Fold:
Amino acid sequence: MATLNHLHLSPQGFLFDHHSGLSFSTNSTGAWILDRMIKGAAQQEILNGLVEDFDVSPDQAALDLEEFLTVLRQHRVLPRERKVELS
Amino acid sequence: MTAPIPLGDWRDAGIAVSGLNAADNPAPGVAVARSLREAGHRGRLVGLAYDAMDAGIYNRQLFDEVYLIPFPSRGSDALLHHLRLVRQQGRLDLVIPTLDSELELYLTLQPELEEAGIHSFLPDEGGLAMRAKSRLAEFCHKHDFQVPPTEVVHSLEGLRDVWEDICDPDGREPVYVKGIFYDARKAWTVEQAMNSFVEISARWGLPIILQRGLAGFEYNICCLGDGEGGLVGAVPMRKLGVTEKGKAWSGVTVGDPRLLELAREMIAALKWRGPCELEILCEEETERLHLIEINPRFPAWCYLCAGAGQNLPAALARRALGGAPEVLPPARSGVIYSRAAVDIICDLGVLEDLSVSGRAVHPSSGEAPREC
Structure:
C-alpha cells in the first residue's frame, strides 16, 4: 500500500507535496477524497462514502474517482507509472 | 591541514564574511551574516566587499565593520595584506568566503591565515578540482551519479565537432553553454552556441562547458560537509519564483528522502569540507535525479536553512572554531522564503570612509562613528 504521508492537506483544500514542493488547490469534493486517501482508506470505502455523502450513483462515483486519480497522477501527486493501490 | 583550535564560545568570535552584493542576483554574504546573527553570534562581524556600492555594506544591523578588499585577480598577497589589516583592527578568528572565484586564493593562503589565527572551513584542492564544472561529468561517471550529456570544449572548432553529439536529437531542449565560473546561456543552434562561446570565454576564460538540457524541474540542496565524508546538514529547496536571469527569488524547502540520500553520497564521494550547493535536475519522464552543478560555497538563499531549522552557516562557524560536532535536527519541509527589495538608509560617511580608507565602521560596533 502506498503511503501518502508526504502530502499535507488543509481543511480549505490546499494540498502541499513535501517531496516535490508543489502545491495545489482542490474543491471540497477533492479535499474529501484526498483526506481519506491520506488516512489510508480503502478505494471501496471512498466510493461508498461518495455515494452516501454526495448523492451520486456507484457508477458515477467510480468514474469521477478514476478521473480525479488521473489528474493527481498527471500532477505527480500520485506516481505515474503505477496506480496507487488504495487498500 | 591544521586542526581547529577551541576558541571558547563561537558566538564571541570575530568573523569576516565576503560577498556583500545584494542586488537582484545577490551574493551569499548577507544571508550568511543574517544566519550567524540569528544563531546568537554577538562578536565582531566584518563584511568584506569588492565594491563600495555593494548593498550589504550598508546593513548596519548585521555588520560592525566593512572593508573593501582587492579583486581576486590581484592575487593572494594583496588579499593577505588586507586580512591582516582587518586583524590589526580587532578580533578576527574566522573568515567565510562566499564567492567561487575567491576559493583558490583562500586555499593558497590557508597556512598564513592559520598562523595569524584566522581559521576557515574549506574543501581541499582535490575536492575543489573534482567538482569543477569542467570535470563534473567525469566525477559523476566515476561515482555512478546521473549527469546530462556534457562536453568540455576549448575552441570553436571543438564546439562544432561535438555539437551533433551534445544537442537534443529531437530539438525539444536547448544546450546550455556555461562559463568555467559563471554564466550559462541557452543555445538551440550551433551558431547560437558559438556566439555564447565567444562572449562567455572573453569574460571568464576557457574552457566552455556544453550541457544538454533535459525536460524536468530543478532542486537545489545547501550542504555542509565535515571533510571526512560526513554530511553535517543538508537543506533541499525547490524554486518557486525566478528572476529574468533564472535566479531564485522565492522557494520552498522539500523533504524528498532521495535528495538527502544523493547529498550524502556526493559529500562522501568528494570528502567535502565546508559548504556547497548541489544543483539537481529531476528528469520529467523518468524522475531520475541528475547532477547539474556543484557550487563550492553557500548559496545566496542559505538563510532559508536557518528558517527551516538547520542553520548551516552557524554550524560551520562552530566547527571551524573547534566546537564539538553536533547532530543537527532535520530541516523542516514546507518552509517558504521570498526575497524583497528594501531601501537602506545610511550616512554618507560610510561611503566616504570606504572610498578614502577602505574601511567603514557602523555605530553598532561600539566604535564612535565619524561625523559627516
User: Anything to note?
Assistant: Residues 190-204 of chain B form the longest helix (15 residues). Chain B touches chain A at residues 219, 237-238, 240, 251-257, 333-334 (CB under 8 Å). The domain at 215-338 of chain B is CATH 3.30.470.20 (D-amino Acid Aminotransferase; Chain A, domain 1).
